[in-house]
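Please predict the structure of the following assembly.
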Amino acid sequence: PREISNDYEKLLEVEEDQDVIIYAGENENLKEFRAHSLILCTRSQYFFAAFYNDWVEKKNGNFILKKPNISPQLFKIILRFIYCGKIDLTNFQGPEMLKLLTAVDELNIQALINCVQKYL
Amino acid sequence: MSSRKQPKGKIRPPKKPNSADAQFNDNWDRLAQAIREIHKKNASILSFEELYRNAYNMVLHKNGDKLYNGVREVITQHLEEVAVSQVVPAFPLSGASSSQTNPNGAGGANFLKVLKTVWEDHTTCMLMIRDILMYMDRVYAKTANVPLVYDLGLDLFRDTIVRSQNYPIQNHLLEVLLQQIKLERENEIIDRTNVKASIDMLLELTDASTKDTVYATDFENKFLETSSEYYRVEGQMLVGEYDAPEYMKKVDKRLNEEEQRVRHYLSQTTEPKIRNIVEEELISKHLKTVIEMENSGLIPMLRNEKMDDLGRMYKLFGRVVKGHDEMKSAISDYIRELGKAINETVTSNTTAEGGNAASGDKQTGATVAVRWVQEVLDLKDKFDKVQNLALSNDKAFQTSFNEAFEYFINKNSKSPEFISLFIDDNLKKGLKGKTEEEVDSVLDKTITLFRFIGEKDVFERYYKQHLAKRLLLGRSVSDDAERGMIGKLKVECGYQFTTKLEGMFNDMRISSDTMTDFKEYLDKSVLEKPKLDLSVTVLTSTFWPMNLSASPRCNLPPELTKACGTFQNFYLGRHSGRRLTWQSNMGTADIRGSFKARKHELNVSTYQMVILLMFNDKQDGESLSYEQIKGESDIPEADLKRNLQSLACAKYKILVKEPKGKEINPGDQFNFNNDFTAPLQRIKIQTVASKVESEGERKETREKVEEARKHQTEAAIVRIMKDRKTMEHNLLIAEVVKQLQSRFMPNPALIKKRIEALIEREYLERATGDRRVYNYLA
């Protein structure tokens, strides 16, 4: 399992076959993330629902998703967890932790919710 | 939030607008609008993440209940509109007229089609709504303990469309479904897809109070009721119009169709129920009628060996409780009836013969026996075939058939004798025209009949008699076949049953060795050689069935008496302490007779030889009277008559009788038939060896059997009591019956008598205190 999660983490770096563009944050704090819809759908019901019906905006064959209420910093951590199930909570401050929990709750990633609650 | 006609569940407009309320209104307006767009199939203009976030925010700000109720409201409104604008206009022309104006149920089919579309649209929308409201489902629905939004959608569809209070949608739906099924039962082609869609819809909807599917609560019972009625009518119609095989084919087809129907568009849970109905209405209710159909029912099928039809009946009737029982008892009755007929031909034959020839043409007596057995075997073959080809070798049927055979076989009191005669017949001439395998298979089958005999000891007695005659008269064709048969009997009844039979074989073998030795002895000895070849068979008296303790009267010619004396000296010299008695009634002799035309070698019985030798001293044309022959030969009267008959009234007439006739009477005159001609040099005068017994002989046999039973019963009682020492009356009787039943069925009265006899002879005593208990006295 360790090996698998390492390999999946590498997928984050590989810039190939990515078909989702996610804009996290808003205004000056806006960042673009690229990901694989297959992995997102598998790991999160939220993404599954979003991509399942073809009502998500598509540009050049890419799904476009906007998450203005989640900061790019947080989204990066969440995306990493989605890909490989790893998260390092030790450097989180209280308010940040709460933001993480809220974001994860919205995105309905149950494993991470459990993980954070356990840590708290 | 336009046109709110329904008072219940309406969303109240905010009373005091504040920022939270404004936020709520804003969120909700967008969501309600989005749901309407989804219903209009405009989902592609919507943004999922935005709507999701709207719902998320509402739930997050404790407005979950308002959101939930709002959604309910919007969906209900939409469904109401659908009912009015789509479903109601598609109602088929109602009532009975619909099937007349639309003979193919086209109106109904269209209605189902519309319903199918409506249902599919609804579920598609609900899936999207569910996705947007995922957060509500997860967070609000769980804590508020309300159905998830998709299930809410199903409930709304159930109450607003399927069970609408405003429009008779449910009635139409059920009526159309049942009508479509009826049409299909009447061989119309219907569009199963539409029916299936409606059924699937009903299966997905749940009844709130029973928690069962709406299919089960609203549809299934109605379906079963109409089916019941349909097949009740059809059953009566079919039974009146078709013969049994056709009827069964129709039923088979119906069962198949209903099974297919369930598989194609109903619920699997309905399968056993509809099957039961068809089985009840088409099979159970008409079991007897079909079995008893005059020219096509069970008995005609058996008579004409309609294996396919029988097999179909077996399979079909096996589906219902009483089916096989009815078949079994009908077939068993039929076997008994056929068996009775076979038994009756036998008795009518024997009585007819009795009229023709008082002392009996014995050969036909044996023929009757052989024919009886052959007919029973044919019957057995027939039902084995039925059993094998049509009844899947069902053990229960086999048992019941066996009982039927047993019943009628034992109804014929002569069956043990007949079966033994049949075996006799096969072993005597069996190999002529039949291969050894064929004979063996016939004997195997005979053994199956033997199993049915209740009185095996009676059979044993006859078998011994017949075997004795075969051995002594050299009539057996094959020693192997004889031993094979004894082997089979041994397998059936055990060693005890066959020791005496084997002893008889042993005597034959030892006798043949003895004769070799006797010839050597004669060659070496200085004694005068006998003028004839003597062949002696020494029988151990206990093995053989005849009474060998005394010599029957008969004046033998001096040469023979002398030869016998020589043998007797030789034999007793080797085996001291034994006693020989000569059985002249069982011997044969080869003699040479000179007739006008040519010389013939005659093979005759010892008695016939004695009779014929008397004519040696007579002039041509000189006759002897019956009384003279009787006086001079001293042969017992019955034997004498039979032998004279063989010489004067049978195929080869060596003697001429005056007056002519088939019977021998006192006062008859006999002449040597000098004009006798025959194509063969060697002639065998048939002494009738095997025959059905006369009444007197039968009585004698019976008495012997009864006597033997007494001994066997006493032996069994003593054996048991010796082992148990003390035993209660009923238990003892039961044990005795158990030990003896392989040979015969002892009746309790007989056992009781034997117990009393044993008490008298002080083998047993009644226990003091309890008269029902016996003690063994050592």
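The radius of gyration of chain B is 48 Å. Chain B touches chain A through 18 residues (CB under 8 Å).
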